[in-house]
Amino acid sequence: MTELAALITAFTTLFIIIDPPGLAPVFIALTQGMSAAQRRAIALRAFLVAAALMMLFLFTGEAVLEFIGISMDAFRIAGGILLFLTALDMLFQKRQARREESAAEGQAEHHDDPSVFPLALPLIVGPGAITTVILLAGQSEGAADLFAVAAVVLSVLVIVFLAFLAAPAIERILGKTGLNIVTRVLGMLLAALAVQFVLDGLRGFGIGG
């Protein structure tokens, strides 16, 4: 896992799953009417909460699976299927619509501070992200690999934080059409990565060589 190619794959997978460009317009919607200082504070809190949750799942997720009797290969297959469904949502633009709906609900319930809900959970740390970090942890061999993955996770979250800070500019530059194109391209890449997870899981059961 500490090989550069593996770390790049881990980074790509997480980046696609979390989708910082797609979160930018949601952040704008949740923080409408707020000052720049308020937006920075909310972005920072969302980053810190998301980082804490991701580290929790990274370092304890596999132990939880072992405790309830689920093998990593079975989880790889289930996780790959879940990621593939997420990719389909991205390709057909259903994912962003759900995010905006969730954001609207969160804004209604927590209009003063949306940093924990819905930003950190479930928009940043959603089922796909949780699945991915547990899968990456399962591929790690030793503490060095886990800490390397942790660094990758944090780097993606830093990009999310920066995307929040630059959200107004990103929206102006890309526009709605640009965001749709980026989301669809990332969806295609995620679909391929999801198939690879399923194949790895099947290989662990001795299916497919």
Automatic annotation (TrEMBL):
Q: Record keywords: Transcription included? A: no
Q: Where in the cell is it found?
A: Cell membrane
* Superkingdom assignment: Bacteria
Keyword check for Transmembrane, yes or no: yes
Q: How does it sit in the membrane?
A: Multi-pass membrane protein
InterPro entries xref list: Multi_antbiot-R_MarC (IPR002771)
Q: Where are the transmembrane segments?
A: 6-30, 42-68, 74-92, 119-140, 146-167, 179-199
- Any GO CC annotation of this UniProt entry: plasma membrane
| Sorted UniProt keywords | Cell membrane, Membrane, Transmembrane, Transmembrane helix
Pfam families registered for this protein in UniProt: MarC (PF01914)
Q: According to its UniProt record, which protein family does this protein belong to?
A: Belongs to the UPF0056 (MarC) family.
Q: What is this protein called?
A: UPF0056 membrane protein
Its source organism is Yoonia litorea
Taxonomy-wise, where does this protein's organism fall, top ranks first? Bacteria, Pseudomonadati, Pseudomonadota, Alphaproteobacteria, Rhodobacterales
